[in-house]
Amino acid sequence: MKKIVVLLLLLANMLAAENWQDELESWKQQRLASLSREHGWLSLIGMDWLHKGKNSIGADKTNDIVLPHGAGQLGYFTVEDKSIHFTPSPDSAIKADDKAVTETIEVFMDSSGKPTIFTVDTFQFYVIERGKPALRIKDSQAKTRTEFKGLTYFPANEKFRVKAKFIAYNPAKEVEIINVLGLLSKESAPGKIQFEIDGKTYSLDVLDAGDSYEIIFADKTSGRTTYGPGRFVYVKKQDKDGNITLDFNKAYNPPCAFTDYSTCPLPPPQNRLPVYIEAGEKKYNH
Prior knowledge:
The chain is mostly beta strands. It has two domains: about 40-145, Tumour Suppressor Smad4, CATH 2.60.200; about 150-270, no CATH class. It has helices at about 1-35, 145, and strands spanning about 45-50, 55-60, 65, 75-80, 85-90, 95, 100, 105, 120, 125-130, 135-140, 160-180, 185-195, 200-210, 210-215, 230-235, 245. The strands form three sheets. It has a six-stranded antiparallel β-sheet, with no helix packed on it. The chain has a six-stranded antiparallel β-sheet with strand order 16-15-14-13-12-17, with no helix packed on it. The N and C termini lie far apart (about 55 Å).
């Protein structure tokens, strides 16, 4: 009887391991599809600061914002103290939120929660707020996308799929996050997750991301086999007993690993782990 129980347990563990591997492969495919989609992060070709007054855009070199191809004059953004507007050039064929723009419209930044998305030719662009307004420009013909070499990963390793415990901060902890531009933002961390690797205890502050937590971290592989500034990983929120599964095999590179024009956050000091996390996405070789 004991032998049967042992065999059943072994079979159950084998099936669980196979299911985890399958789920991990599915996640990798979704990650690749998201990154390489038409106007995903690989298509990002520019981030141009907008100054007060008129900011013209188009392929003509006389514009304030010069595009690599397309119509010479698309129109111009007008930046005022509390608002931004866009005025199209005649016959520019530009759209905003999938609607043709034929007259001056108000433009909403990403900080509004629903930025105005412009599309024309192979381009997509929208205004972001990073201390001041900037135009984020994507092009589906970008070389970073058309010549993308793919993603590489460490071999899947269950050692880095760990059981963690959520420890709430009461009240929530204010965490200072610096981005690659050197801009500081203050985020609210509802708690930290605590876990063990090779018998040693570590912890990471988490940021609320709806039904999951976002973790920005670095480790001793950073700058060696993984992207220097750090990586991201998301985890499902804790169960009623505070348990969380942290799978570093799903750690991935921020957009800054692929383009010079994104504004990625950097790991706070407390999220720099003194251990080699040899799991997840490796450094991208351009």
